Fold each of these.
Amino acid sequence: MERILSGIKPTGQLTLGNYIGALRHFKDFQDNGEVFIFIADLHALTLPIDPEVLRQNSRDIAAFYLASGLDPKKATIFLQSTVSAHSELNSIVQNYLYMGELSRMTQFKDKSAKMNDKEIGLGLFAYPVLMAADILLYDAKTVPVGEDQLQHIELARDLVHRFNHKYGDILVMPQGKVNKVGARIMSLSDPTKKMSKSDPKGDIFLKDDMKTIRKKIMSAVTDMEALVYYDPVNKPGVSNLLTIYAALNDITIEEAAKHFEGCTRYGDFKKEVADTVERELAPFKARYEEIIASGEYLDVLKEGAKKANAIANVTLKRVQNAVGLLTLE
Ligand code: AQP
């Protein structure tokens, strides 16, 4: 059975972008492969974050995972920091990725550009190394990601080429998989920018109440043309709303555009988008509330840590042996 791995960083409150680009697809994976879904809490430390906020975000993600339909009997759900092999493999594989290639990573350039030099930690620069370790530990072949993570997957693939060329067939080659629709949901207030939890301008948060969510959609930035069609360059706001509508209705962008063909009233268009979002998110949010109140996610994370550790340690040993570290068992 093919191994599939994905995760979300608890850097902020989850957004509709995280839901459409990631969460919504997880339950389908568990029927088609051996699934590992983690909370990337070590990655969250690469940007300044308050400890209590980090803990709360991590609890929320665990509950959102379960609310999304992930079944802990089928999927291994765990916290990255509870599997020490992530850090151990990171410290080995960092020697096979180079400063030049890491400094070309768009995500690093974007995030560091917003910070002053004294705030930029080594962890932010080395983020793709830990991400490679995350993937390689589970011999994952398929890694569902948003478009902007593809560059990191390419780096992980370069690492595997280099490593296997030197030591033999040790690491499994991962492949990034991007959704056809909704791989990049944009901010509602500036639709030229990605909706991002660590830069929460124009975000819809999954914890927002439905009234707030509808209000945000109704006041989303559009344009002066008053005609609904898909043109992400000249009509980024309308195109973003069409993308949200298409993704949540499981239809193509073309089908969504056809549905609204000739629509000249943005108010009507937005209302229909808001109805779609509400239909999808209202039951999901209700499940989340139940799960967070019951605390059942804690046992899931404990059990997940056991399963993940057992699998990750096998890969770690294989790598340690290959590079010449003495393993005593
Ligand atoms: N706007 C988005 N549209 C579609 N998919 C998105 N994802 C994130 N934002 C969008 C997907 O959600 C998952 C979580 O990824 P992550 O937490 O590892 O980091 P990210 O991709 O960098 O997401 P954010 O929300 O922008 O986080 P910050 O602000 O912390 O960097 C991934 O599958 C991602 O593609």
Note: The two ends are 28 Å apart (CA to CA).
Amino acid sequence: PVPPVVTPGTSNAAAPADALVLFDGTTLDEWVNSKDASPAGWTVADGAMTVVKSVGNIQTKRSFRSYQLHIEWRIPVGITGKGQGRGNSGVFLASTGKGDAGYEIQVLDSYENETYVNGQAGSIYKQRIPLVNANRKPGEWQAFDIVWTAPTWKADGTLGSPAYVTAFHNGVLIHDHVALDGETVFIGKPSYKPYDRAPIMLQSHGDPSEPISFRNIWLRELK
Ligand code: MG
């Protein structure tokens, strides 16, 4: 594969030799439309993919249990809107069903944009607040480095061990092996729903602000 773009002065990380490259800047071959598994349909240009809001969410063709993930994202210069309506997207660490079912780490412009604390960029949406705000300005590339430990289930389908997240935002620790309460929910108490392997999904949020971009996405599966 083509080596990922690495920009000096950012926390970009080149994919290690044993990584599965999910986006190298040139093709969406590893991605499909979440609605119907048709071609992903987001824009690819200049080494990045950009959300196309009319297309909707996209997700990996492959499904995963536990892994290490590197993903970079950029809020466009001149982003408009406020609160949750300013560059909203998200990385669903496991997409477990239709729509926004699963476990979301939030992508948003949280550089100078107030919102509820468990909805800011880097939050495990509505569940876990990042330890610090490590956001960069709109227009600058930012990185998430995430260790996702998938939940496990007992033979009877009840929870064996919860999901854990360790995450760095631009190289700064924002989640230190935190256990989750279940899947992301907008309102109400999270709960777990058994799944085996799940794709990773990128959110096309319905807010009217300008679409954001992703690049340099790679993953290492863990046992
Ligand atoms: Mg979101």
Note: Residues 88-90, 104, 106, 203, 205 surround magnesium ion (CB under 6 Å).
